[in-house]
Amino acid sequence: MLPACKLLTLPRVPRGKMKTMHHLKLVQNRMDDDDFALMQRVGNGDVHAYQILVDRHTARCLRTAGRMLGNREDAEDVVQESWLKLWHEAAHWEPRAKLSTWLYRVVVNGCIDRQRKRGRTEQADMELFLDERPLAEEEMIMSERGRRMARAISALEKRQRVSLVLSYYEGLSNAEVAEIMGIKTGTLQVLLHRARNSLKKQLTE
After folding, report:
1. What is the 8-class DSSP label of residue 121?
2. What is the Cα 18 distance to its own chain's centre?
3. What is the pTM of this model?
4. What are phi and psi of 159, to 5 degrees?
């Protein structure tokens, strides 16, 4: 079983308030710095520091894995394996990127490996696409068009699906997604363009 997890709640950002935006950026930067300090402690065998990281990042990892794999059980397995990898590699971890970026990469690679082993992508569980989305959008997704969208996303080529999930559902910047996938931003833009075209074609057939 995965440990219970809680995402760190960041303050809401009122529109047009640059000071608040600046504050939010500082909060995110402090969290990144804190992740680095926690990883150093985990590298020294600190179980409490490890649990803090698990509680902070597991929910988001589960959403990403679930949307890529199409079901919760496989997503939980991949995320559990990712945390075990972090524990075993913490002593040798080098902060070339943010911990969240490194963790995303491990989760994404785990999902791709699992898809390769089972040889197919299952139709996505609709609920995996509903987390933290406005009510009106939830209603849209539960419509027939929403179900068709989920099936279409499930049918995308692996790299196209990864790029779409990270860019749209997780809201990461092109630079962050490209770093996670180990590709150039130009290549990412091509993948997103092809993914959108593929979705458009499937949804209009």
Report:
1. -
2. 27
3. 0.69
4. -70, -35
